[in-house]
Amino acid sequence: MGLRAAFPSANFQIDHQIGNEDPVLGPRAAIRWSLRGSHDGWGSFGPPTGADVYVMGFCHADFGPWGLRSETIVFDTVALWKQILLHKG
């Protein structure tokens, strides 16, 4: 939520999606996504700076007999901070 709050007008795009099910590992799903836009909201990245940013990330979910078993969300916060701070000067 902090990411979306910091970039409320940014374009979110799913670049790739896949689902798979094996007897040993069970059902799972993954998406690769990107977010492109302006740092124009208050969120996890401080006050709005107007910096144009591009973020890539992925999400992975494992499902079990009672629903979602685990979820992982990864994106490069260091690269995101660098884009914001370079804009500020």
Rounded Rg: 16 Å
Sheet having the most strands = 4 strands, antiparallel
Low-confidence stretches: none
Tell me, what is the CATH class?
A: Alpha Beta
The averaged pLDDT comes out at 93
What's the overall geometry? elongated
CATH topology, anyone? Answer: Nuclear Transport Factor 2, Chain: A
* Helix/strand order, N-terminal first: HEEEEH
Taken together, the total number of domains comes to 1
In total, the number of strands is 4
Strand order of the largest sheet: 1-2-3-4
CATH architecture: Roll
Strand residue percentage = over 45%
What is the number of helical segments per DSSP (H or I, 4+ residues)?
2
What distance lies between the first and last C-alpha atoms, to the nearest angstrom?
27 Å
By secondary-structure content and strand pairing, the structural class works out as alpha+beta
Helical proportion?
Answer: 10-25%
List the helices and strands and how they pair.
Layout: H1 2-6, E1 11-22, E2 26-38, E3 52-64, E4 67-75, H2 77-88
